[in-house]
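Write out the 3D structure for:
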Amino acid sequence: MQAPTLSTALLSQQVSLPLVMVVIGAIFLGTLAISRFSLRFGIPAVLGVLLFGLAINPKFISVSHSSIEWIHTLTLAMLLFYAGLCTEINSIRGFLKYGLILAFGGVLVSTLLLGLIVWSTASPNAGGIALGFHQLPLPVALLIAACLGSTDAGATLSVLEGVGSGIPRRLRALVEFESSMNDPAAILFLGIVLTLSGGSISREQDVPLLLLGQVQMFVQKLGSGLVLGVLLGLVASFCLNRLVHRKEELLILGISLGMLSYGISEMLGGSGLISVYITGLFLCNFHFSNSRITPSSLQETLLPFNTMTTITVFLLFGIAMDPVLLLPSISEGVVAAAGLMLIARPLSVLAMQAWSPFNLRESVLISWCGLRGAVPLSLSFAAVEAIPSLPGVEQTQVASLQTNVAGIVFTVVMLNLLLQGLSLPHLSRWLGLQPDAPAAPPAAAAAR
């Protein structure tokens, strides 16, 4: 992955550095105001920031897709590290097997169902609705679905934080665990779609071999990520016990540990996303001899950094999308969003119900917690770049398909965050799922 190359340029005149700094400072101040305003009305803060970036769309700040992906990878790695730090083994022990099945099996089922929905409803250039079959090339429909197949850790953690205690703690733990686990599954499934539809298959009998190779790669990355996550967790615990003498040092060390866990795992062929989550999970459940270090102190230290990076990446995604180019794909984006929220996601959860320790009402809430966010937006960059090489795509369609595919994914993410983020606490109450009661006061305090 290339290092970010942020370039600032003005279309008609030179911009001075102080002016650029003033504008960037004003933009970030605006994101803070928008996020507070959004939460006040029950709208997820990340959605408010995303729409703010789309609305201002400053032309003199040019940010490449590779820059956004670089920042997004950093953000996602640190969010997963933070999610691991917040996960106690006891909280996931009762649904560990189901959580893994839902994370990986749910991606497969929801992607295939959503792919069929998009294929059967989109026009040949994905710029509108045209009911029927064999209009939009099937590989393009599967690419759109693969981008939207997984729940997103960043969006999920952000929205659940805004919801507060409106969701039962046990369900919150499952949703956070699932969203942390299925990002790697979505990335790998997108790779399978790209491999099978990229024109590299010369004979029909090559398909099983390609699928087997992708499965082997997935298992290898998953297993390596788990092992390296534990090993790096041991190293991290040693560092925290020996290197930290003041609480102020926790931020530097926490960021360093998250980056090292992701980077080393990726360099050695493992899944960095799995590794960084396991490293955080290990630290959360490890006993520190250094009395200055507790999981809660690490969480409190990293939270402002994660908030800053999350706001930045959603702001950049909004800035990167031209609102004028978004208009033609809105109608198909609405159809895809409805298909995802009302058909693909619920059926993918229902298909895994046999392994679920949760009842049907709880599973309904789980299916409605399938939030999409920065990961689909990031994966859409890879999908757009792959469109020219897909079979069945004519050269005259490439430009419109690239624009409309990005617009569909963007529209689905916006509607998903808005509708599901707003309605989660109301649905929980309608289903009769009571939020967790506050902890009972100590006996001595109660006696007073």
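The beta strands are 7-8, 61-62.
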